[in-house]
């Protein structure tokens, strides 16, 4: 498989023979695109030809698009796995929709100070990062080998951030591991104010003094949000923009130099076109991802109160949070108004003896002072002019204590009395007089009562109950009798083959609960339960 793939893409030396042809094609199709090829000082001993060393490319579309991106640039490097080896250096920005925006890339011999300085020199010229504007840009990286000396040499005035994830990896390599230290470290990185950063750093110090000393050598302006500058309008802590671009180039890193450059070019061309098509369909001037963020902020702003102190200045106070100063004219927002931490001992409150009872809020009026009117300001109404109504008799002019229909003011309310009586009656009827043992096996009694046909013709289906004096030989339960009385007759025509014999019509039973009897497991007697669940002893 490897031999077939090598035969298809050709030899690495054949690809390097097309370098100058590839550069000439870029001049013809993209004249404003900048590329640089540097050859090595080493020459072939037989032919005297120079060898390839580095190549830098920055397309004109990337230079034009960076004008509308945030002043935040991520740089990173990854290894090439082709036959010639080398490193791929990339520079990625962030557009207005918080998406990655590739800026430039270069193929170099390795990751060292000379190669990074050569790459950053061309990058600063293409992006317009001059000496007087260096403080406006911020670079974020994984702290690669030789990168910091290159920044100090080429663009020393830019702000530099470290990826917090890689910084934590270095912290674990130094021997400071554990979830508690990790949570304390990330709390320091996510802190947005100086005081919150200080309190989080104290928690980390309480966990491990050595980790605190190791982290003290790193400037908080490089890894904590509390010390970031605001001109970048981005509080990114990790270098995921470069990691995402490196993951997209995974297939191109296995190819020879010309195929690798062509794969990157096609990917950038496709991405720029797709982003342009999506932007053409937007119906608002604000990008969709920013609109989503504004919706979340709008929900959070519902818990804030704004007090206006000038035409464009407001003081915004959170219900249970900090206080901010907002200037709409300058479009600025101050840091949370946190008071400085003082180590001085606080004073104790003065000695005060409070009076008994609820403190009065209204002042005492003098004897000659006239009481206010019903409504002076249109909002406050005196309770003196409100007509009282009793809730039971619904009559005005009195309350429950002075109601003539309620002579005993301590008497319970009617609905409470009714509830108490109902509860007492239920307890009386539900409490059994005798001990009744319910068996798990219940045997229903079949309905053997016959209803006369004459009663069906009259529209009445009733059964005469036996008198209490005469005791029937075969007693019928009262519930069964009621079921028979509630049964609905169903007429059935006599057929010709029955010979005209009159037969009793069928009856439809009601849905009421049928009576049943059960045999006790502890006694030899059986008990019959009627319609009202009254136990009747059957000998």
Report on the structure:
This protein is α+β, with helices and mostly antiparallel strands. Among the domains are: 2-163 and 238-277, no CATH class; 180-234, no CATH class; 303-338, no CATH class; 432-459 and 477-485 and 507-539, no CATH class. Helix content is 33%, strand content 16%. It has helices at residues 2-9, 12-16, 19-29, 60-65, 113-127, 147-154, 164-173, 179-190, 194-207, 209-216, 240-248, 257-280, 288-301, 414-430, 453-458, 478-486; strands spanning 34-43, 50-58, 72-79, 87-94, 100-108, 138-141, 159-162, 304-308, 313-318, 323-327, 332-333, 443-444, 488-489, 507-508, 516-519, 526-529, 535-538. The strands form 4 sheets. It has a 7-stranded mixed beta sheet with strand order 1-2-5-4-3-6-7, sandwiched between helices. A 4-stranded antiparallel beta sheet has the order 8-9-10-11, with no helix packed on it. Helix 5 packs across helix 6 (147-154) and helix 9 crosses helix 10 (209-216). The longest helix has 24 residues, at 257-280. The radius of gyration is 47 Å and the shape is elongated. It starts with a helix and ends with a strand. Mean pLDDT is 77; it is low at 434-505.
């Amino acid at each position: 498989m490897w031999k077939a793939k090598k035969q298809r893409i050709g030899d690495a030396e054949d690809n390097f023979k097309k370098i100058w042809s590839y550069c000439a094609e870029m001049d013809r199709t993209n004249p404003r695109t900048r590329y640089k090829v540097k050859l090595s000082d080493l020459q072939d001993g037989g032919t005297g030809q120079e060898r390839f060393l580095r190549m830098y490319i920055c397309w004109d579309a990337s230079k034009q698009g960076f004008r509308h991106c945030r002043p935040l640039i991520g740089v990173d490097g990854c290894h090439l796995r082709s036959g010639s080896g080398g490193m791929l250096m990339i520079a990625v920005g962030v557009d207005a929709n918080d998406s990655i925006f590739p800026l430039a890339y270069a193929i170099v011999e390795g990751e060292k100070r000379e190669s990074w300085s050569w790459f950053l020199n061309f990058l600063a010229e293409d992006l317009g990062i001059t000496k007087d504007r260096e403080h406006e840009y911020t670079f974020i990286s994984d702290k690669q080998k030789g990168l910091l000396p290159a920044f100090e040499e080429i663009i020393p005035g830019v702000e530099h951030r470290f990826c917090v994830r890689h910084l934590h990896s270095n912290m674990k390599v130094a021997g400071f591991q554990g979830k508690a230290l990790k949570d304390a470290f990330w709390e320091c990185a996510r802190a947005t104010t100086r005081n919150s950063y200080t309190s989080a750093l104290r928690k980390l110090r309480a966990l491990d003094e050595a980790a605190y000393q190791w982290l003290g050598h790193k400037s908080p302006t490089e890894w904590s949000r509390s010390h970031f500058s605001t001109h970048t309008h981005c509080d990114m802590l990790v270098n995921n923009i470069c990691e995402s671009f490196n993951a997209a180039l995974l297939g191109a890193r296995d190819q020879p130099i010309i195929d690798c450059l062509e794969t990157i070019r096609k990917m950038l061309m496709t991405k720029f076109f797709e982003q342009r098509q999506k932007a053409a369909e937007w119906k608002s001037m604000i990008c969709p991802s920013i609109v989503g963020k504004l919706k979340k902020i709008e929900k959070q702003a519902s818990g804030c109160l704004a007090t206006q102190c000038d035409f464009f200045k407001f003081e915004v106070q959170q219900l249970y949070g900090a206080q901010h100063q907002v200037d709409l004219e300058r479009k600025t927002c101050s840091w949370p108004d946190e008071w400085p931490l003082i180590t001085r001992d606080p004073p104790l409150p003065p000695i005060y003896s409070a009076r008994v009872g609820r403190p009065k809020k209204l002042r005492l009026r003098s004897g000659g002072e006239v009481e206010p009117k019903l409504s002076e300001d249109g909002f406050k109404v005196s309770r003196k002019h409100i007509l009282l109504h009793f809730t039971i008799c619904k009559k005005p002019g009195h309350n429950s204590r002075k109601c003539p229909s309620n002579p005993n003011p301590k008497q319970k309310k009617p609905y409470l009395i009714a509830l108490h009586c109902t509860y007492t009656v239920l307890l009386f009827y539900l409490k059994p007089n005798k001990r009744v043992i319910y068996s798990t096996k219940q045997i229903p009694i079949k309905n053997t009562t016959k209803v006369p046909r004459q009663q069906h013709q009259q529209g009445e289906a009733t059964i005469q109950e036996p008198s209490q004096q005469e005791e029937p030989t075969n007693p019928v339960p009262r519930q069964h009798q009621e079921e028979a009385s509630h049964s609905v007759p169903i007429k059935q025509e006599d057929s010709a083959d029955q010979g005209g014999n009159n037969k009793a019509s069928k009856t439809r039973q009601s849905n009421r609960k049928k009576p049943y009897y059960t045999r006790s497991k502890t006694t030899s007697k059986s008990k019959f339960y009627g319609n009202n669940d009254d136990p009747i002893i059957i000998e």
